[in-house]
Amino acid sequence: MKPFVYFMRRLYTYTGNILLLNFIGMVLISLLDGVGIFLLIPLISFTGILDMSTQDIPIISWMVDLFQRIPTSMSLSLILGIYVGITIVQGYIQRKQVILNGEIQQKFVHHLREETYKLLLQSRWELFTTMRKSDIIKLMTTEIGRVKSGTSMFLQFLTSLIFSSIQLVIAFLLSAKMTVFVMIFGIILLFFSRKFIKKSYHYGNESMKLSRIYSAGITDHFNGIKDIKSNTLEQTHVSWFRALCDRIENNSIEYLKLKTKSQFIYKIVSAILISVFIFTSITIFQEQTTQLMLIIVIFSRLWPTFSSIQANLEKLGSVVPAFEELLKVQSQCMQAKEINENDYKRINPFILKEGIECKNIYFKYRRNNKKFVLKDINMQIPSNQMTAIVGQSGAGKSTLVDLLMGLNQPESGSVRIDGKELTKDFLLSYRCSISYVPQDPFLFNASLRENLLLIEPNASEADIWEALEFSSAAEFVRELPSGLDTIIGDRGVRLSGGERQRIVLARAILRKPSILVLDEATSALDTENERKIKHALEKLKGTMTIIIIAHRLSTIRNADQVIVLEKGEIIQRGGYKQLANEEKSLFSNLLGEQVEIRAN
Ligand SMILES: Nc1ncnc2c1ncn2[C@@H]1O[C@H](COP(=O)(O)OP(=O)(O)OP(=O)(O)O)[C@@H](O)[C@H]1O
Question: What parts of the sequence cross the membrane (predicted)?
Fold first, then answer.
């Protein structure tokens, strides 16, 4: 129940008085319903079908007295008029309350979606290296959907609770003994339904886990569909999929069995209870006919509500895991928060003046890991110069660049920007001054123009073409059927690897950054295009700080400084030519290997 109470508190904080108004509406509807029942007695008296003595019934005796003072013809019309009036008012309030309920739910879910999305985006990069993307997608779609229906169920549950309480008070006024008797049965039944609620929670939890595996699997498989098809892995995947679908099917059927079992037991117990109730009313308590009839009317309306409370509790049990999951992710995001809402208002244009410095940096991905990925990193990246980072695969190049961009935080040591330690205070301003081109360039399924403007919405047509010329992409863009308005597919699938790299490079330049970071950004280019990019980078030198990771050492021939990493440590540094001349060093080895490969 804890997550529900938490969310209901949040619901109140967010909706405030609307929620109170909603509850008042619920109470009014239930009261009017009760008044309608009270009116039945004078009505039945008037029909003369039953000879009813109403002196002993509180409120009703007063009502009947009142009507008896008015001429019969008028009082009948008055009762019927009041009855119709009450029904109209009740119907009107009910409609308003249903709309209000819907608005509360929609607003709350909108708020939850936006809040979770923002929390995710404002979290440190580290969080995304531990969470699966498919889990995030699932949380933002299915689980939030379940939280929405859980909120609706909870509101329904409260409505039933208020309705039942008011009807119980009415029943209590009519016959205290009988009401206590029935309530004891009701409480016993709710006590036993605890077992069902617990089991529903278990099936809900299982269903969440299974559907998480399902979405993660589907995402992975269709991301890797080319591998699956080219390596004829279809059958293996179909078997995996079938086994998972079996588990999903079994879990759903078990849950259905549980639901129908509890409903079945509830029905039997209700039938026995009603029979015992009528029997005892007549033989033991000897209630009067009028009271007995009225109580039967009330309980015949009350039991379905009782039953819906019980069914709602079970359904709530099955959505609790979704609430828990949302809470868990939200609290993980809070812990990993690196940006606050107000930070966006304080972004000051930042131009790197002196340079970036790494001081005694140690870094590892998991706190409990013994092995450091980066060790004792001390280096200077002077502004407006080109610094290249090289080393074998897994040496820690990308990790170092992530630290330089403030995506990762060092375990000890510091990154200093123009002499000032990189802290949250100016992290956003600093990042706004960076353009980053990753190993695996990301493009949205939109037009080329939209992809380019994403980073610099105010760029003119001339700016766009200038950036495309720079990255040697202008020629192929001109030849596309719709030019800049060509839609490029999921992650830019309709472009070749080299074309994608050139577009992402153009996008990075469009922003006119103070710092340009290229992580293997030219790996998919042919020699001719690589030469053009090398030439363009040469022209950029002196206008911005360039940090470049390149396996292909020919790309960094013009670098002012080369940093060589091995197993997380800097083992060499200096100018390209200087390092190339250092015999038996890692750099000259790497260079030698590449020359050999080219010669072969
Ligand atoms: N998210 C992560 N979680 C745990 N370990 C990681 C993570 N990312 C990288 N590593 C590890 O850190 C080490 C350095 O990885 P990094 O990607 O920085 O190397 P790299 O030099 O850029 O390699 P490559 O040239 O192949 O891209 C590797 O041993 C890698 O397994």
Answer: 20-50, 70-93, 154-174, 180-197, 264-285
Q: For residues 217 and 10, what is the distance between their CA atoms, to the nearest angstrom?
A: 34
| Domain identity same for 266 and 408 | no
For residue 368, give its domain range: 355-433+515-599
CATH number at residue 585: 3.40.50.300
- Candidates 361, 389, 397: which one to mutate for ligand 1, based on the most atoms within 8 Å of Cβ? 397
Task: For 51-61, write each residue's pLDDT tens digit.
Answer: 555 566 666 66
Q: Are residues 395 and 303 in the same domain?
A: no
Instruction: Check if 372 has its Cβ closer than 6 Å to any atom of ligand 1.
Output: no
Q: What amino acid is encoded at 354 in this protein?
A: E
- Whether 313 contacts 197, CB under 8 Å: yes
Same domain? For 541 and 560 the reply is yes
Selection from 328, 316, 318 nearest residue 116 by Cα:
328
For 176, 179, 186, 406, the CA distances from 291, given in Å and listed in that order, are: 11, 12, 21, 76
Domain end marker among 493, 512, 531: 512
53 and 155 assigned to the same domain: yes
Q: Do residues 212 and 138 make contact, with C-beta atoms less than 8 angstroms apart?
A: yes
Q: How far is the CA of 125 from the centre of ligand 1 (A)?
A: 14
Residue 349 covered by a domain: no
Instruction: Say yes or no: CB of residue 394 within 6 Å of ligand 1.
Output: yes
Q: Is the C-beta atom of 373 inside 6 A of ligand 1?
A: yes
d(CA 467, CA 444): 18
Coil, helix or strand for 361? strand
Calpha distance 561→575 (Å, rounded): 5
Q: Which atom of ligand 1 is nearest to the CA of 130?
A: 1
- Asked whether residue 536 is assigned to any structural domain, the reply reads yes
Tell whether 459 and 587 lie within a shared domain: no
pLDDT in tens, 171-203: 787 777 777 877 787 777 777 778 888 888 899
0.95 exceeded by the pTM? no
What are the backbone angles phi and psi of residue 562, rounded to the nearest 5°?
Answer: -120, 130
How many folded domains does the chain comprise? 3
Tell how far the Cα of 394 is from the centroid of ligand 1, in angstroms: 5
Compute, in angstroms, the gap from residue 400 CA to the centroid of ligand 1.
10
83: Cβ–Cβ under 8 A, 6 or more apart, which residues? 36, 39, 43
Contact 270, 299 (CB under 8 A): no
Give me the residue label for tokens 């290249």: 388
- Residue 51 has a pLDDT of 55
| 365 C-beta closer than 6 A to ligand 1 | yes
CA–CA separation, 589 and 600 (whole Å): 16
